[in-house]
Structure formats: C-alpha cells, structure tokens
Design goal:
The complex is a heterodimer of chains A (271) and B (343). With 271 residues, chain A is α/β, with parallel strands linked by helices. Helix content of chain A is 45%, strand content 13%. Chain A contains twelve helices and eleven strands. In chain A, the strands form three sheets. In chain A, strands 3-2-1-4-5 form a five-stranded parallel beta sheet, sandwiched between helices. In chain A, strands 9-6-10-11 form a four-stranded parallel beta sheet. In chain A, strands 7-8 form a two-stranded antiparallel ribbon. The longest helix of chain A is centred in the first third of the chain and has 20 residues. The mean pLDDT of chain A is 88. Chain B is mostly helical. Chain B has a single domain, classed as ABC transporter involved in vitamin B12 uptake, BtuC (Orthogonal Bundle). Chain B has a two-stranded antiparallel ribbon. The chains are: A alpha/beta (271), B mainly alpha (343). Chains A and B meet through strand 3, helix 3 and helix 4 of A and helix 3 and helix 7 of B.
C-alpha cells in the first residue's frame, strides 16, 4: 500500500516536472515540423514559423522567422523561444548558429516513412506530449498497413516521377517519392540512381518507357507538348498525372494521403 | 602630421557613428535608448552605473547578432576595397578586382567541398566552413601566381589571364559537384550568393587580423606602388625591386581577399568600385587611396548590408544585390563626371 502510494507520488511529481519543463515557445523551421507540431496538439505553443508553413491554416497567423533558405535571427530571438525545431535536410548551418547563441534546438531528419513515425514519437517526447506522439505514430503505421495490404502485386507499372523539367530532375532512392512509388506497387524507372534528386537523361526516360508519369511541379500542359514523349506508354494511354508536391514530400502523417492517391493512380493502369 | 591625425580621427568618428546607427536598426524594433544602454553597459567603468531596463532577448540581439554583423561588414568592406587597390595597382589594370586572381573561385570550391563532401558526413561542423574557403582561395591564388610567370618574372597580363582561366575551370568544378551531390545544395547556394547573415564573433576574429595586417603592409608599400605607377622602367631606375614589390602586393591582397571571402562568401563589386570611385575623388596617390578606400569601403558595405536586412524585413536579401544596385549607378555617375572634368 505504502509502496504504491510512493510510486503514485513519484509519478505525479515526474508528470508535473515534465509539464513544467515542456517548451512553451516553439519555433519551427520547416513546413513539415509545423504541421507535425499542430498534429501533436501543441500548435498553441508554436510562436514562429517559416513563410513556407502553409498547413494547417492557423500556422499562417504565426510570426514568420524566415523562408526555406534564409533565417532572420533577430526576429527569431525576439520571440524568446525555448525550443527551435529544425530539419537537418534543410539548412543545417542555421541550427549550429542558434546553438552557439544558447537557444535549445532539436533536429529531425526523417527520410523514410518509418523515420517519420519515429520522428513523431521523438518530437512528442521533446515537447512534453509523449503519448500523443506515440498515438500518431501507431495510427500512421496502422493506416500504412491497411493501404499497402490490398495492393495487387503481380503487375508493377513503370513510373516516371518528375520533380523538375529543366533540368530534367527525378526522385531516386532516399526520397519519399521513390519510397511511395515502391510502396504503392510501382517500379521507379530511376530506381537505379545513386542519389535522391538525380538529374536524369530524357533519352533514358523514353527508352525505359514509363507507363505512368507523375508531375510534381504543375507543368501538365508543358509536359504533354513534348514531342519525344508521345511514344511512351504513359502518354499513349493518358496516364500522365499532376500531383500536389506538398503532401508527397513533407514528412508528416499526410504523406499517407499521397500514398493513397498514388495507389489509386496505379490501379487505373492495371489491366 | 596634424592633418593626418585629423583625417584618421575623422574617419574613426564616421566609422563609429555608422556602426552605432546600423546597430540600432533592424527588423526587431529596439528603442535607441536601450541599444545605447546595452552597448554602454559593456564599457568598463560605465557598466555598473547603468540599470538594465531591457529584455535579455534584446541584449542577445544587439550584442550577439547585430554587433558582430556590423563589425564584420566594416572589416569585409574595408578589406575588399584595400585588396582592390592593391590588385589594380600591382597589375596596372583597371578591371582587376579582389577576385581576379582566382580568390573567389578557389574559395567557392573550398566551401563546396566542405559543404558537399565533408560536413554532411559529420567529420567537422559548420564552424570549419571558413577554413575550407580560405584554403581554397589561397591554393587558387598560389596556382595563378605560378601560372602568371614568364621566365621567372610575374607578368600582369599573364596573371590576369591565368586568373580568368583558372576561375572558369574551378567554377565548372563547383557546378559539377553541385549536380552530382545535390543533398546539401541549399547551403552551397546560400554561400555562393554571399551574405553577412548569421555571422558571429568568431567570423569577425577570423577575418580582422588579415585585414588589419594587410592594411599596415599596404600603407608601408604605398610609396613603392606610387613609383610603379610611372612604369616599370622608371620604378627600376629609381632602385625599386619591381618583382619583389609586385609579388608582395599580390600576396597581401590575396590573403586579405581570401580572409574576407572565407567569412562572407562572394560579395561582388565593392573591391572593384570603391577604389575607382576614390581614385576619381582623391587621386591615385596610394597612401591616400588605401586610407580612403578602407573607410569608404567599410561604410559602403555596412550601408548595403543594413539595407539588405531592413528593406524587406523580416525577409533578407543578399547583400550583393544591394552593392551592385546602389553602387552601379553611383559609379557610372562618377565616371561621367570624371570624363567631363578631364575634357
């Protein structure tokens, strides 16, 4: 009896401590982090964001401390943050500067869906809502299993993912887009590239004859007018799609919306 | 002597005032009284008398964000301008600038190697970036001064051509690296544009010694450069070892430019324009030219950087845009006026 009372006291004490130590003024340096903080239910405590943080809409009412490249240190410091969360795949140099100024920083760098789930758990723990983080991660995993469970695997359509048209840039292994295509049961025709954002040869695209083309920079009209591409299966059968790049590249639970969309797209190409 | 003292005093006063005004400006509105208080509280003897009525965040902004950046703008602006005087003087070519002998291309390659191949692997941190750039700049400079020799003698035209050629080659290598190693691209891009944003005291202490030492040596060599202006023959007949002076001046200029570019990235136009503008105003005598280029370049870059961080606040624009945008028209005006003046 006494033992459990002591245990309960310790529990209450540590919970209060955790609540007291939880950061109250958070600055996010990436759209995905902003989105995840709101998903974790601590949007109220987010005081600074980047000009790219468009989702959820409420995030747009926060003070802007910079964009994807530049950071306004003065504005950031004037917010008196007790935590700055950054993504290491964006500009890492800024985070080192902040640390040297004595600002607590936390860095996440997810590059796979499994790492997104792990980063939600970590982020939840750091901002003092560990349970919520684990819930989000579990929900993501459950949805992922459900989505990929029903995919017909006997036929793997060849997919060309286009990040940019000039230079012709695609998504290779190490990028979310590559992982999403593979998860959805497709075959990325640039799957043999050695980096996540390779510049790719147009000839090779034609030769590898994609059955599906995914465009991520709102250039459907331009793409459809390319003479050499008319011979590809994707163009002949009308399987050229324009998608919203934000959900396909941001390391948030919404990336599974992208997966669901991609599965539906690939389904249309199946005989 | 008194006139010299008055000039130096005047320049110091101007630099000091400009620095205080720039420190008081920024995207966060901090009352002038607080800015002055924060600065004064750091002075020995005065600190105890001042009651801090400002927020700790404002103190951090003034002392650790704005002040190092302001001082760095002065150091880099002055350094690039004096380096420009040295290059134009020793190569006797009006188009020579601090980057002409491959400094910027070498520094860019050094920085790109650091940002794309070394830093992402976690071997060293971003604090080492200036060292990579500095090493690249110095190596490129050494290569150019070797390539610019003919029969053991430095030839201005060969130096310039070698600088242009090596610069083009190194720039191509940077572009190639960027295409092949795309992960850390934002960092490289940011560095190549040149900026004083996010710089700390350690950047100031890296660049300042080279600039001050270079300045002292430049003033010491000014007399020799003046004679050299009359032509190589004349200088030789007056007992000046032209080769020695030329090599020394190039070396000093390169080290100054390398130190500046290492901490700030490539900021164009300052080192080309400021010396020319002052040559039109104060004449070609080198001691005077070095002195006036120093403070004018310092104030010019400080002005440009202050505009860069306040005009579109809270977003910042690369300072190189401002130096060219403000400097270009002013320079053209001076050239026109100059040509009218000379008939």
């Amino acid at each position: 009896m006494r033992k459990s009372l002591a245990l309960a006291l310790v529990l209450v004490f540590s919970l209060t401590m955790a609540a007291a130590a939880a950061p109250q003024r958070i600055v996010s340096l990436a759209p995905s982090i902003t989105e995840n903080l709101f998903a974790l239910g601590v949007g109220e405590r987010v005081v600074g964001v980047t000009s790219w943080c468009t989702y959820p809409e409420e995030a747009q009412s926060r003070t802007v401390v910079g964009d994807a490249l530049n950071l306004n240190l003065e504005v950031l410091l004037s917010l008196e943050p007790d935590l700055v969360v950054g993504d290491a795949t964006l500009v890492q140099g800024h985070l080192e500067t902040l640390e040297s100024l004595g600002i607590p920083t936390f860095v996440i760098a997810p590059s796979t869906i499994a790492e997104v789930e792990a980063s939600l758990v970590e982020l939840g723990a750091v901002v003092g809502v560990p349970q919520r983080g684990e819930e989000l991660a579990r929900a993501m995993e459950a949805r992922l299993q459900e989505l990929v469970g029903g995919i017909e695997r006997s036929f793997r359509p060849r997919v060309w993912i286009e990040i940019w048209h000039d230079p012709l840039m695609t998504a290779g292994p190490g990028s979310f887009l590559h992982e999403l295509v593979e998860l959805a049961g497709g075959e990325n025709i640039a799957g043999d590239a050695d980096n996540p954002w390779p510049v790719f040869s147009e000839e090779l695209v034609i030769e590898r004859d994609p059955q599906v083309v995914i465009l991520t920079s709102y250039n459907l009209e331009e793409a459809l007018s390319r003479p050499a591409w008319q011979a590809t299966s994707a163009f002949k059968n009308g399987h050229v799609y324009e998608v919203n790049p934000d959900i396909y590249s941001r390391s948030t639970p919404r990336i599974l919306d992208a997966l669901a969309e991609l599965i539906a797209i690939l389904d249309e190409t199946r005989p | 002597m008194r006139r010299v003292l008055r000039r130096v005093g005047g320049a110091l006063f101007l630099l000091f005032t400009a620095a205080v005004v720039a420190t008081a400006l920024g995207s966060v509105n901090i009352p002038l009284a607080h800015v002055l208080g924060i600065l004064a509280a750091r002075l020995p003897g005065l600190g105890e008398l001042i009651e801090p009525g400002w927020s700790p965040a404002h103190e951090v902004i003034v002392l650790r964000v704005r002040l190092p950046r302001v001082l760095l703008a002065l150091v880099v602006g002055g350094g690039l301008s004096v380096a420009g005087v040295l290059f134009q003087g020793s190569l006797r070519n009006p188009l020579a600038d601090p980057y002409v002998i491959g400094v910027s291309a070498g520094a860019s390659l050094g920085a790109a190697v650091g940002l794309l191949l070394v830093i992402p692997r976690g071997i060293v941190g971003y604090g080492f970036l200036p060292l990579f750039a500095f090493a690249g700049a110095v190596l490129a400079t050494l290569a150019v001064s070797r390539l610019g020799q003919r029969r053991g003698r430095l030839e201005p035209t060969s130096v310039l051509l070698a600088g242009v050629a090596l610069g083009a080659f190194l720039t191509a290598v940077v572009s190639l690296l960027m295409v092949l190693r795309i992960e850390n691209l934002q960092d490289v891009y940011l560095w190549l544009m040149g900026s004083l944003s996010g710089r700390t005291w350690s950047h100031v202490s890296m660049a300042a010694p080279y600039v001050f030492l270079g300045l002292a040596l430049a003033l010491w060599l000014a007399k020799d450069l003046n004679v050299y202006l009359l032509g190589e023959e004349a200088a030789h007949s007056l007992g000046i070892d032209v080769q020695r002076v030329q090599r020394l001046v190039l070396l000093i200029g390169s080290l100054m430019a390398a130190a500046c570019v290492a901490v700030s990235g490539v900021i164009g136009f300052v080192g080309l324009m400021v010396p020319h503008a002052l040559r039109l105003i104060v004449g070609a005598e080198h001691r005077r030219l070095v002195f006036h280029s120093l403070w004018a370049g310092a104030v010019f870059l400080l002005l440009a950087d202050t505009l860069a961080r306040t005009v579109f606040s809270p977003l910042e624009i690369p300072v190189g845009i401002i130096t060219a945008f403000v400097g270009g028209p002013f320079f053209i005006y001076l050239l026109k006026r100059g040509s009218d003046f000379h008939g």
